[in-house]
From TrEMBL:
Its EC number is 4.2.1.93. NCBIfam families: yjeF_cterm. It comes from Raphanus sativus (Radish). CDD domains: YXKO-related. It is an enzyme of class 4 (lyase). The keyword Phosphoprotein applies. This is ATP-dependent (S)-NAD(P)H-hydrate dehydratase. (6S)-NADPHX binds at residues 158, 211-217, 280. The gene is LOC108844017. The lineage of its organism: Eukaryota, Viridiplantae, Streptophyta, Embryophyta, Tracheophyta. Residues 45-353 form the YjeF C-terminal domain.
Length: 357
C-alpha cells in the first residue's frame, strides 16, 4: 500500500536524518538546505473547512450565508466570471452577482438564471474619447449602489486588459476599500494590480491569487528579482510583506499562502488535468470562505489568533475544497475532466467534510 506523508512529517524526517548523518547544518546537501530554509507549515484544510462552514440554520435569512460579486467578463471571456460566480453559489453563498461588459452580459445570463448579471462595464472600443469621463462616473455609480451589500468581491476573472475598463476597475477597488469590503484579485485583475501595486498595498482585506505567470510578474515587479523555487516559502512571505501584509495564494502543484507573517501550504492530491477555469473556481471559493471566516471573527466567543485571519482561512479552505472536488471529478471523467465537472463535484466534496444535517 502506498503511504502518503504530510510535507511537515517528511521535513521533520529529513531534518532528523540530516542531523543524524551530517551532524551540522553547514554540511547539508543543497536541496535539503533549501527545503529547511523555506519552511511552510502544512495546513489541515479539512479541519479549516469544518471550522468556517456555517451550519444550515433555519433561523437565518437570505443573504446571511454570503453575497458575492465578481467583477469580470468581457468580449473574449465569459467562462471565467461564470465559473467564479457559480462556484460561490455551489459552495453555499446565497447571492452571486457579476458586473461585466454589455457584450458579455447576455452570454453569462444564458449560462445560468441563478446569477444576477449587471451589464455595466465598458471597453474603449464602445465609446469615444469625449464620452470617457461621463461613462466612468456612470460605471462607478452603478457599482457603488451595491457595494455595501457585498461580503466580498472577486476582481479580475475574464476582465480583459482594455485600459479604459481597467481604469474603471481601479476606481471600483478604491470604492471597496472605502467601504471595507474584502476583495480577491485574480486573472487580469492581477495584471492591473501588478502595474499599480498601491491599489492593494497595506489593505489587509485584499487577497491575491496568482498562477505561475501572474506570480512571476508580481515577483519581478515588486521584489525586482526572479522566482526562487528553492526558497519558495520565504520569497512568498517577503512578497506579501512588501505589499503591506496582503494575503497571497500562490497557485501550483502545492498551493502556498502567506500574509507576510506565516506561510501555509495545501497539497492535498487534486487532479492531473490542467484545464482552464480551475483558478476561477478557486477565486469564487476564497470569497465565500473568507466571508464565512469574517462572520466567525465577529463572534465575541471566538478567539482568533493572527494565523487564523479570515483571509488565510479562506484561502486554505478554498484550496482544500477545490483539490478534493478536482480529485473526485477526475475519478469520474478521467482525461475528459472539465472545469464544469469539477464545479459539479463541489457540493459532494464539501458534504463529505461538513454534512448538511
Ligand atoms: N473560459 C474562460 O473564459 C477562461 C478565461 N480565463 C481568463 O483568461 C485571462 C488570461 O488568463 P491566463 O491564465 O490565460 O493568463 P496567463 O498570463 O496565466 O497565461 C497566459 C499564457 O501563459 C500560458 N501558461 C499558463 N499556465 C502556464 C504554466 N503553468 N506554465 C507555463 N505557461 C503557462 C498559457 O498557455 C497562456 O497562453 C484571465 O482573464 C482569465 O481569468 C481563464 O480563467 C481560463 C478560463
Ligand atoms: N501542477 C499542479 N498539480 C496539482 N494541482 C495544481 C497544479 N497546478 C495548479 N493546481 C491546482 O489548480 C488550481 C488552479 O491553479 P491554476 O494554476 O490552474 O490557476 P489559473 O491558471 O489561474 O487557472 P484559470 O485557468 O482558471 O485562470 C490551484 O489552486 C491548484 O490547487
Ligand atoms: Mg487564472
Amino acid at each position: 500500500m502506498l503511504v502518503k506523508h504530510s510535507s511537515s512529517t517528511v521535513l521533520r524526517r529529513q531534518q532528523f536524518l540530516v542531523r543524524t548523518l551530517c551532524g551540522s547544518r553547514t554540511h547539508l546537501p543543497k536541496l535539503i538546505r533549501a527545503t529547511m530554509s523555506s519552511k511552510s507549515e502544512a495546513a489541515d484544510a479539512e479541519s479549516v473547512l469544518r471550522t468556517v462552514t456555517p451550519s444550515l440554520d433555519p433561523k437565518r435569512h437570505k443573504g446571511q450565508a454570503g453575497k458575492i460579486a465578481v467583477i469580470g467578463g468581457c468580449r473574449e471571456y465569459t467562462g471565467a466570471p461564470y465559473f467564479a460566480a457559480i462556484s460561490a453559489l455551489k459552495i453555499g453563498a446565497d447571492l452571486s452577482h457579476v458586473f461585466c461588459t454589455k457584450d458579455a452580459a447576455p452570454v453569462i445570463k444564458s449560462y445560468s438564471p441563478e446569477l444576477i448579471v449587471h451589464p455595466v462595464l465598458e471597453e474603449s472600443y464602445t465609446i469615444s474619447e469625449e464620452e470617457k469621463r461621463k461613462v466612468e462616473d456612470k460605471v462607478i455609480g452603478e457599482v457603488d449602489k451595491w457595494m455595501e451589500r457585498f461580503d466580498c468581491l472577486v476582481i479580475g476573472p475574464g476582465l480583459g486588459r482594455d485600459p479604459f475598463l481597467l481604469e474603471c476597475v481601479s476606481k471600483i477597488m478604491l470604492l471597496a476599500k472605502k467601504s471595507n469590503v474584502p476583495f480577491v484579485v485574480d486573472g487580469d485583475g492581477l495584471f492591473l494590480v501588478t502595474n499599480s501595486i498601491d491599489l492593494v498595498k497595506s489593505y489587509p482585506l485584499a487577497v491575491l491569487t496568482p498562477n505561475v505567470n501572474e506570480y512571476k510578474r508580481l515577483v519581478q515587479k515588486v521584489l525586482n528579482c526572479e522566482v526562487d523555487e528553492e526558497n519558495a516559502g520565504d520569497q512568498l512571505r517577503s512578497l506579501a510583506k512588501q505589499i503591506g501584509g496582503v494575503t497571497i495564494l500562490r497557485k501550483g502543484k502545492t498551493d502556498l499562502i502567506s500574509n507576510g507573517e506565516i506561510v501555509k501550504s495545501v497539497s492535498i492530491y487534486g487532479s492531473p488535468r490542467r484545464c482552464g477555469g480551475q483558478g476561477d473556481i478557486l477565486s469564487g471559493g476564497v470569497a465565500v470562505f473568507l466571508s464565512w471566516a469574517q462572520q466567525l471573527k465577529s463572534d465575541p466567543e471566538r478567539n482568533f489568533s493572527p494565523s487564523e485571519s479570515p483571509a488565510i482561512l479562506g484561502c486554505i479552505a478554498a484550496s482544500g475544497l477545490l483539490r478534493k472536488a478536482a480529485a473526485l471529478a477526475f475519478t469520474k471523467h478521467k482525461r475528459s475532466t472539465l472545469t464544469s465537472d469539477i464545479i459539479e463535484c463541489l457540493g459532494e466534496s464539501l458534504e463529505d467534510i461538513c454534512p448538511a444535517s
